[in-house]
Amino acid sequence: MNKPVLQAREVTKIYGTGDQVIPVLRGINFTIEQGQRIAIVGASGTGKSTLLHVLGGLDSPSGGEVLLNDQPYSRLGEVEQGALRNRYLGFVYQFHHLLPEFSALDNVAMPLWIRRMPKAEAREQAEKILKAVGLGQRLQHAPGELSGGERQRAALARALVTQPACVLADEPTGNLDRATAEAVFEVMLSLNQQFGTALVIVTHDMELATRCDTQLTLKNGLLA
Question: What share of the chain is helix, strand, coil (3-state, %, to 5)?
Fold first, then answer.
């Protein structure tokens, strides 16, 4: 059995106070192990992005706890949480969030600089991962000079450059046409196999979801 990377135990999330309470998550139990691929699907507004933010430690649950590499977020300070996320997690969003004033190479190297890795070493590691996602010829291009699919590949490279235990992806192909979405998803699956990185993917695209090991539906605040 592979080691659990990320675990949710009876996680709840409630917005509002008093009579205006909106329960979004109602007791989520969830485990993802090394190298596993899980797709989370469900209608718009069911709380899929909220769940991903709670799993990633970007938002706190109202109840229950989330453990990353067996360490509960709730027992760590803000700086410790940030260091844990930077070491074990990568994030990919529907919008790439690349910094427009930096090249693709420097955008991807950024998480390593945050770790205080020497600049030359970080750029070398970033170049390797950009080549792995098919952007070896676009290293010095700014995001504005890349196509939509290339920008998303660069965002994927940035998420993977630290060799995280798990990547959390929120509609990573939602902004792309079918052919480009397929190509980006193929890269994600290939890198999942190459690095053993676990994937948790929130998506509306059932064709892509069925290519993951497990499909979970978020409905009425629960995963099924």
Answer: 40, 25, 35
* Segment 111-152, tens digit of pLDDT: 898 888 899 999 999 998 898 888 889 999 999 999 888 888
- Beta-ladder partners of 71: 68
CA gyration radius for the chain? 17
State both tokens at 81.
């949480």
Query: How far, in Å, CA of 60 to CA of 53, rounded?
Result: 8
What angle (nearest 5°) sits at the alpha carbon of residue 130, between those of residues 138 and 100? Answer: 60
How many Å separate Cα 159 from the centre of its chain?
7
How far apart, in whole angstroms, are the C-alpha atoms of residue 208 and residue 224?
A: 18
Residue 150: name the closest of 187, 189, 113 by CA: 187
